[in-house]
Amino acid sequence: MTAEKCSYVALPAGKSPRICFDPCSHESIKSAFELYRPHSLKGKLLRLAGIVLSYTRLIARFSFFRVTPDVSGKLAEYDRQLGESLELGDITTAYLLGTPGKHQKWIARISANNSVTAYAKIAFANGAAKQLVNEAKVLARLEAFSSKHAHVPRLIASVFSDDLSFIVVSGPGYDVSKTSKIKLDKSLAGFTRELALHGKTAERHVDEILDRDFSIKGTPRIELARLRIRDWLVKTLPEGKYQIALSHGDFAPWNVLTQTNNKYFVFDWEYSSETLPAFFDIFHYAFMPAMLVDNKAPVLAIGRCLAMCQQGAPAESLSSDLTIKSEHLPAYLGLYLWSLLIRLADTQEKAAGDGIYNSTVEYVIRAIEALSFRFNRRKDKPAVLVSAYACDPEHGSEPGVGWQMVQAISRIADEWVITRKNNRNNIERELLATRNLHVYLSAIDLPPWLGWWKKGQRGVRTYYYLWQLVALYHCRKELSHKHFDIGHHVTFVNDWLFTFFSLYKLPYIWGPIGSHPKIPYGLTMNLSAYLKDRARYLFQGLMRTIDPLFWLSATRASKIVVISNEARNRWPLLLFKKKTEVHTGIGVEEFTDITEHGQARKNGSTTRILSVGRLVPIKGFNLAIESFSRVGSDIDLELVIIGKGPDKEKLEQLVKKTGNEAKVRFIEWLPRDQVMQWFATADIFLFPSFEAGGMVVLEAMNQSVPVVCLDYAGPGTMVDETSGIKIPIGSKRDVVTGLSSAIRTLVDDKEKYDALSQGARQRVREQFMWGERYNIVNEWYSEVAGATGMSN
Predict the structure, then answer these.
(1) Per-residue pLDDT at 432 exceeds 80
(2) Rounded CA gap, 434 and 200, in Å?
(3) pTM of structure
(4) Which option is the CATH number for 597-768: 3.40.50.720, 3.40.50.620, 3.40.50.2000, 3.90.930.12?
């Protein structure tokens, strides 16, 4: 008489099942927990709790664990079809549900007469069904395969239809004592050797695998990884060819059982293939647990795999059988990772264009990048770890500084850049466009629970401070300091907050760094702005004094580069003058589309005065507006201010007060390429700023636009008498009068205008071109190498 079945239950819950079984059947309960043998601590605790709930029959009392009617109906139908395929009337089953997705499969353990009869794998989608077809073919072929170390399943039945596909295979045949240990022992290594030699080996060119289409191929990050690894493989492997061998394809501890007869049972052959790179199974056995169970960083997973290549290790032993040189084994690891990426990319559900990948795909990409950085280094170049919080090729200011420094460093070193996530896409697009394969990226942010409060520029310095700690954690976990020769802090260009390099085991250069000087008394728009600026200056000085991490940054730095003598003489940096150098932190790119700009502009009827920057007190836009209003009404002028910021409303009110609403235009912040177009149409660049930098000054000069500025701070050092007119600091009346007189001079004196226009361009070419910055950086690295004994 057939025993009555209870309704199926599931763990961890009926609505999110991982295993399904009959709580009234001891055999079904036993089968369920034989199927579910997790390696993670969380999984083991869940399994233990499930066993207690099941054998005490408590699980059947709670509706929380009951499967949904839809799942219950499916299970009943599967039981019927499996029983018919085995020609057994009454069977007991338990089900393990695979990871959701187009390749999801359910695994059933089938028992009859209180003994395990077989296992079944059930597929619903076309992708999973194809895998079962492949497994059926492989198992049929392996009937002639004999191993001293392991058994493989025997194919019992298979059904393939549009509605449902499944295969039924034999079980271990012996009692199972435990799942396999993580470590790949001699027996398992021997099994992979037997399997590889059982199939036919052949050679393939690396392009056959690297050029294969898959879902995320063509995105900048993937294309950069492909170009890097191809460059390495072609240089490493003879004629760029590698050997293929018969492989299990998913050889991992959870697909291996240890039997009481001291042999292994290897199952799940759906990914098996004769065209996978040799050593695939060996690397897979080491890599997958590191990724999925141990949560190791990709660089550590790579280390596990490379350990398989050491003398006497499994990969090294197999290489002699396949006549592959042991020094080529790391290249086969690269081929394994690329093959795995192609497979896992099929699970990618998000749009690949946004550069966001699921966790396993992201992990494999990082592993490929880590391996390529380690083995595809230029022999005569140092390896540099760069901190560039702000780094974006499509922006000016600090992001532009970060990007240009990264570009300069890549000419003399292989570098790994730590930056923000919002910079990644633009950087990778530019690297791909220029075929710069020597820059690798880690894009990190604060976790949402820690950085939710940051909105735009609000709290940016606090976020930056905390980001240094997150960057430190990332580097310690993901990047081994042993793979780098030197560190280099690039951005923020900030001399009052610490750098994470102070806590990282690496000699490093800190800079260029600096900060804005004080705004002179009487030159702000109002008293409130003056007091805020003084509070800012005092707070920055306080941070330099009381923050032990700042002191540690200055103490541990091998070299400090500051952007001005004032920064060099600030407390406490003045204590480190012996290792401090003054160098401007900004520059400009080569600009070739210039044809007598000065003369072309003067032919226009209206003289256009341009000013660009954030609308904040340090920029001095109030002085620009007031001086513009005093130039004189007898000439046709317009003032264009490009930027946004908290002072916009006050500045607009100031324009109304001066009666120049018709002549002054405010334009919201624009992309950098559009700002460059405005420079090309400007006659004069008016920039009475007090800031320490001022890249827009150089960008104006680079397009032959004479500059009117203050003889103070950054702009005062960039502009000389050949490139613009500088107004000395004095009373507000004197400064405004001086600025307006300078504008009038440039409008009235064509000869002087033309001379300054040509001089501006010439000064930039001689002093401030990014294209030559690498020479200076190379000198810094050589100096640090000599002081620290660095190898390169």
Answers:
(1) yes
(2) 42
(3) 0.84
(4) 3.40.50.2000
